[in-house]
Amino acid sequence: MKRSTICLVVAALALIVAPLLVWAAKVGEPAPDFTGTSSTGKTIHLADYRGKFVVLEWHNNGCPYVKKHYNSGNMQKLQKEWTAKGVVWLTIISSAPGKQGYVTAAEQNDYMAKMDATPTAALLDPTGVIGHLYDAKTSPQMVVIDPKGVVIYDGAIDDRPTANPADIEGATNYLNLALEQAMAGTPVATPTTRPYGCSVKYPDSTH
Amino acid sequence: MMKMPGQILRQMKRPTPNLHIFAVLAAGISLCVCAGGAQAAGVPIPHGTVELVAENQWIAPGQESTLGLHFQLEKGWHIYWVNPGDSGEPPRVTWQLPAGLTAGALQWPAPQRMQTSATIVDFGYHDSVLLLVPLRASAALPGRQPVKIGAEVRVLVCREMCIPGKAQVTLTLPVQTNPPAPNPAMQKLFADARKSLPGPAPTGWKFSVEEGKDTFLLRVDTHEQVTQAFFFPLEESQIDNAAPQKLDVMATGGAKGFRLSLRKSEQLVKRLTRLKGVLALPAGPSYLVDVPITPGAGK
Q1: Topology annotation, domain A23-199
Q2: In this structure, what CATH number is given to the domain that contains residue B100?
Q3: Where do the DSSP E strands lie in A87-196?
Q4: By Cβ atoms counted within 10 A, which residue in A15, B33, B206, B293 is the most buried?
Q5: Is B122 on the interface with A (CB under 8 A)?
Q6: Could you report the per-residue pLDDT of A121-141, keeping only the tens digit for each?
Q7: Contact residues, A window 30-59, toward B, CB-based 8 Å cutoff
Q8: pLDDT in tens, B189-207
Q9: Which residues of A touch B266 (CB under 8 A)?
Q10: Which one of A199, A200, A201, A204 would you mutate to disrupt binding with B, by most B Cβ within 10 Å of its Cβ?
């Protein structure tokens, strides 16, 4: 593809995507509704979970920052703890076909079995529609939605933005804090942080 | 050193890989035959090397000098600036210094803007970069033995995927009381790096920032004609990295210069009192910006 064509494609995509950002999720505002297909073939509507806390976890199994939390068992531990308390946990894979993290339903199910990952569901989002709806920038990136359907947290999983699993212990876990504080009826002290990790591999991703 | 998306893509497709390999080899050979001080070769990192180098041939007690961390990357791979942008992570350095030596904060050449995708913008470096390190030697630096300086460098190297790396670099330098002589083999490397460091704005330039509801308006009063510029925020979570920065030339009411509209980050929750960053012009120069923010009249 010629350079000028690439420039035009990127510009066109930016023009297509930019208006989407007008409706993109913002902390303190209603969580944009979406419909997705899970790795078990189920149709998932976010609106069906009104009345529960919902966690959205952006995922790319090749990203070193995701591996930090999965190879250590940290993410799986959080999934188990919070789903046991009635939280709906949706792992979302917004990698486009051919890009890092893209998985078929079967591959995602194999991965979850192998890693003992037990989200409520894993959503395959290869066109990046759900990713763009939430302006997901990195994997991992965590979004918490309260039972009224309002985004109460959006950002990093914790305050140690490295790929080193040794940094998990002792880190301030923003996901835990948001859920604990909201469940106690208190305001979320840190409602947003810069998420850390690898860029979400949207169809137009070049890096 | 602002790069528009087309330029970034062109850089990724840079031709003549053989020239690149030759340049790396030539640099490596010239480093080995440098005068004074034992210098280890570049240590491997994912898709590149990192080396600890010194501008001068020896260290003098009581003097300041400059070291450098020289990253050299395979074609298409990049590392990140101190503020990496929407994704990625900057290199992190843990120094191992003998008594009598202290290292100051890293000095970062102006970064490139990388349009990772339509909604994701990062800041970093392709090909190679020298991060400068101010080094101070105490007047009481013990003895006349050579000093061994070490560093553990953690760095994320990315192309379409990211690979974290860790490298141990060392550099042994003699200690002499006479004023240090520059290392001829290092002169160009350090001179080029200094040229690409953001500097103070030219005399007569005036910066001010007005805060609006969703934006910071950076106003630059200058008689120089500027029609393109990009502002790299020094800290995360202040400016929306992917939002276009609209530049308006000021030409009315005696004002001369330009205004750059910077969209606030969604992650900016607290009141910001100062705007700090690097203003880069396409022709090359980049300027340090550190300006108080005044609330806008219309807020």
Answers
A1: Glutaredoxin (3.40.30)
A2: 2.60.40.1250
A3: 88-93, 121-124, 138-139, 141-145, 151-155
A4: B293
A5: yes
A6: 999 999 999 999 999 999 999
A7: none
A8: 999 999 999 999 999 999 9
A9: 26-27, 135, 154, 192
A10: A199
